[in-house]
Amino acid sequence: MTSSNVSEALGYEQARDELIDVVRRLETGGTTLEESLALWERGEELAKVCRQWLEGARKRLNAALAEERSDADEQSDAEGAEGQEGRAGSGGE
67, CA 20 to 30 Å: which among 35, 57, 83, 91? Predict the structure, then answer.
């Protein structure tokens, strides 16, 4: 399995926590140029995983909100139609 595939298998929290650790290690310094580059690349992979998780969550949230709005619109339309029928029937009596 490539490191990219491993990264994609990580959950959001795991990727975020590892990314925090990578950033700390880079900020602390004391690593060789090669180690720093490897950490940077790993950090980029982890950031991508986090973005993908967040984009997926945003899509799910937007879909749920759209469904909720659609349900509310349908309920409002049904209530409006019932109210109009009631008014039409009471006016003829």
Answer: 83
